[in-house]
Structures are given as structure tokens and as C-alpha cells.
Specification:
- This protein has 416 residues and is an alpha/beta fold.
- The protein is 34% helix and 23% strand.
- It has an 8-stranded mixed β-sheet, with helices on both faces. The protein has a 7-stranded mixed β-sheet with strand order 11-17-14-13-12-15-16, sandwiched between helices. Strands 1-2 form a two-stranded antiparallel ribbon.
- Helix 11 (299-310) packs across helix 12.
- The longest helix has 16 residues, at 50-65.
- The radius of gyration is 24 Å and the shape is elongated.
- The relative contact order is 0.11.
Length: 416
């Protein structure tokens, strides 16, 4: 990536090593389109080069158009914003602007020109209050489709400086998502420049890397993250699951043992014992109890089933449904296992689980009959209008998702 700017006043920058689609993002504001559009939305496949192009263009536009003005850079969380946007951005504009960072504030300057860029996280409905009251010359919303509507609309409402623009980069969600129906489908009437990206729009990706990403996804996630479609979730949640992921024998040298639990009293209680070998995680055995069919068990009785599941293995952590407060306390009171509340981000957890299944990094012993049964019954709720599974046949699916999201997919996990 090569950038060059000439002079202190607004001029058209020179770029090299960009695709035509990226160049369109980088330069649209330098011509008559700057007065034609108020919002630019770049959506499409993962690794398609849209995030970097949007971030660099946003900074160049802001710095060449304004002086002593405030802007916002927003991600799902401040950490994600810093990792996905700010860090690549700083290397991209190195030598072009001087960058000073203090907390969640970046100050960029060149000569006498200086502007402020505040970092925000839009993770929930309460996040809108964080940005409320600001006066902005523009806002960049990375992963905008993952943010609450209240936060996005509040951020857009803050852009009251003359000539202010809104910039978004995002991966597709379902076709009923409000950003798609209200902004992309109404692009012409709302003065939106919509640019759709595929992996072919990222010249830095080799065909080998593109093929690897194509192999990581299946079903609705393939349509969204590889094809870049605003596709509805329908059918099996995990269509990539097959008999190839079921094993009769376990590796001899399994380690890093973990138990994951979806807690239920009358609803089924599901627990799985996991071990790792050669970068793959094996569900070695499981315990599944349906209270409605077999009678409810107490927390103490469930705890003893956990001990039986663990056997003599050095299980150092038990990952538990975060709503199961009494059972968490019960485990802690016995002192054998370290207990940890599971991450419970449903759609992200499903996506990470689907990725590990597609890559063959989650395997299941043939004795785990209840989880194998649920894989064939776990379906999307096509009547809800939302991306959510039917709340049936989902208890082993939930404990597997807790394990993947909290441990296997790269969560902060310690075996000390």
C-alpha cells in the first residue's frame, strides 16, 4: 500500500497497489460525488479489503477537508475498533500525518492542520449514550451491522458539521436487517454510495488464501461471508456436520481437558468432556439428562455427574452457562474445578463453531449420541424474522457453542 499527498490544501491523493473498487472508495470524495452523497456503505465478503480502504479514505477525507474538528471511529467494541481499524490505519498513514494517541483519542496533524478522532464501542443499546451530545464532522462505523440501531442512528445524528459524511464497512447479515432494508435498498433516495465487495477486490489475497476462506464457511455463512450476500438463515444451522467428524477411537495423547455445560433443571442438562491433540478438539464423552423425562436432579447431583464425567483426568476448568448462578457456586464450593462463565454471544458462537467444524478441528466420539442427534435437528427459526435457531434440540448445541466461543476459537484461556 502506497499513499502520497501533495500540499496542505485539499488535493487528490495518489494511490498504488489498490483494486479498482478500493480506489473508488479512496477517491470518491475528491470529485463531484462528494456533494452527491452523504453516506458511503461498503459491504460484502470477509477479507475483501473494504475495511482498510474505508478507514484510509475516511482519514484522508477528514484531514483534507477540515481543521480543528472532531470525528468518531466506532467498532463493536473499543478493542475491536483499535485492532481492526486503528492499528492498520496508523501504519497506512505513517509519514503522511503525525499521530498522537491518548486513551480513546487520536490526534492527527500535518503542519498547522489538526483534527481529533474519538474511539467508541457500539456493543449494546446503552452505548448510544456514550456518543450523545457530541458534534462531529463525520463518523466511521466498522462492523456497522453488528451494532445496535440506536447507536448507529445516534452516531449519524451527531454529524452536524457542514459537509459531514458517514462511512460504514460491514459484512452482510439477513435480508431483513434494518441497515439493508433502510439504507442499502433505499440508497438512491438517502444519498448513499453503496459499494459491494468480494474477495476478488482485495489484490493482496493469493488464490490459495481465497480458497482457504471458501473452505472455512458453509450454508448461510458461506453465502454471507464468501459470496457477500444478504442471505436468510434457513435449514440446518450446521449443514457442514457429517460422519467424517465422528471418531471411533480417540488419540492416545489428549490433553488440556475442559468440560462445557448447558445447565437445565426441567430442560435438558448437557455436559461434554473435551481434550486437545494436534490442534484439534475431541468431545470424548458427555452427560445428558432430560429432567422432564427422567426427573429433575439437584445441583449436588449434577455436580457428582460432572465428577464422573471427568474421572481421573486433570480437568482444570468447567465452562458453564452464565445464567446458572447456583450451579456455578456449587462447583466452586467443592474446590476441585475452576469454573468459568461461558461467553454467550449466540450468532458469533455459531459462526465460530461452524468454522471449526468446516475445518475439521472439532471431532466427536461415537458415544456422544445426544450431541450427534442434535446436530441433525438444530435448525434456524425461519419464521422469527431474526437470525436465531429454534429453541429445541439445542442443549448440547449450546454447551458446544459455549466451549468453542470461550476456549477453542481463541478465547483468553489459561491452563495454569
Amino acid at each position: 500500500m502506497i499513499l502520497a499527498a501533495q500540499g496542505e490544501r485539499k488535493q487528490k491523493p495518489r494511490f498504488a497497489s489498490f483494486s479498482p473498487k478500493q480506489k473508488r472508495v479512496l477517491t470518491w470524495w475528491t470529485g463531484p460525488d462528494c456533494d452527491r452523497y452523504d453516506v458511503v456503505i461498503c459491504d460484502g465478503a470477509v477479507r475483501s479489503g473494504k475495511t482498510t480502504a474505508v478507514a484510509v479514505s475516511f482519514i484522508l477525507w477528514a484531514m483534507e477537508s477540515y481543521q480543528d474538528t472532531s470525528f468518531a471511529i466506532c467498532g463493536k467494541t473499543v478493542g475491536a475498533c483499535s485492532r481492526n481499524v486503528v492499528q492498520p490505519l496508523r501504519s497506512a498513514v505513517a509519514g503522511l500525518y503525525r499521530v498522537r494517541a491518548s486513551g480513546n483519542l487520536l490526534e492527527l496533524s500535518r503542519g498547522r492542520r489538526k483534527n481529533r478522532f474519538y474511539l467508541f464501542g457500539g456493543k449494546d443499546e446503552g452505548s448510544a449514550a456514550l456518543i450523545q451530545g457530541m458534534t462531529l464532522g463525520g463518523v466511521l462505523l466498522d462492523e456497522a451491522a453488528l451494532m445496535p440501531r440506536s447507536f448507529v442512528e445516534q452516531a449519524m445524528a451527531r454529524c452536524s458539521v457542514e459537509g459531514a459524511k458517514v462511512w460504514m464497512s460491514l459484512n452482510p447479515e439477513g435480508p431483513t436487517h434494518w441497515l439493508y432494508t433502510e439504507w442499502i435498498c433505499k440508497a438512491a433516495q438517502k444519498r448513499v454510495l453503496r459499494l459491494h465487495f468480494t474477495m476478488d477486490d482485495n489484490p493482496s489475497l493469493s488464490e490459495k488464501v481465497r480458497a482457504r476462506y471458501r473452505g472455512m464457511y458453509s450454508g448461510v455463512f458461506y453465502r454471507r461471508f464468501v459470496l457477500g450476500e444478504w442471505a436468510a438463515a434457513d435449514g440446518l444451522v450446521y449443514p457442514m456436520f457429517s460422519d467424517k467428524l465422528v471418531v471411533r477411537e480417540l488419540p492416545e495423547k489428549l490433553g488440556r481437558f475442559v468440560i462445557s455445560v448447558d445447565y437445565g433443571t426441567m430442560n435438558p442438562f448437557s455436559a461434554g468432556l473435551w481434550g486437545e491433540a494436534d490442534g484439534k478438539w475431541y468431545r470424548m464423552r458427555e452427560f445428558y439428562h432430560n429432567g422432564r423425562e427422567k426427573g429433575a436432579l439437584t445441583d449436588e447431583e449434577y455436580y457428582h455427574r460432572l465428577e464422573e464425567l471427568a474421572g481421573e483426568l486433570a480437568v482444570r476448568q468447567v465452562i458453564v452457562d452464565p445464567s446458572a448462578a447456583s450451579f456455578i457456586q456449587c462447583i466452586r464450593s467443592h474446590g476441585r474445578f475452576t469454573v468459568r462463565k461461558a461467553k454467550n454471544t449466540v450468532l458469533t458462537g455459531i459462526r465460530h463453531t461452524a468454522g471449526m467444524l468446516s475445518e475439521g478441528r472439532l471431532l466427536f466420539h461415537e458415544s456422544c449420541r445426544d450431541s450427534l442427534r442434535e446436530f441433525t435437528l438444530y435448525v434456524w427459526d425461519k419464521d422469527s424474522g431474526k437470525d436465531q435457531p429454534v429453541k429445541e434440540n439445542d442443549h448440547a448445541m449450546d454447551d458446544i457453542r459455549y466451549f468453542v466461543e470461550t476456549v477453542a476459537s481463541g478465547g483468553n484461556f489459561s491452563f495454569n
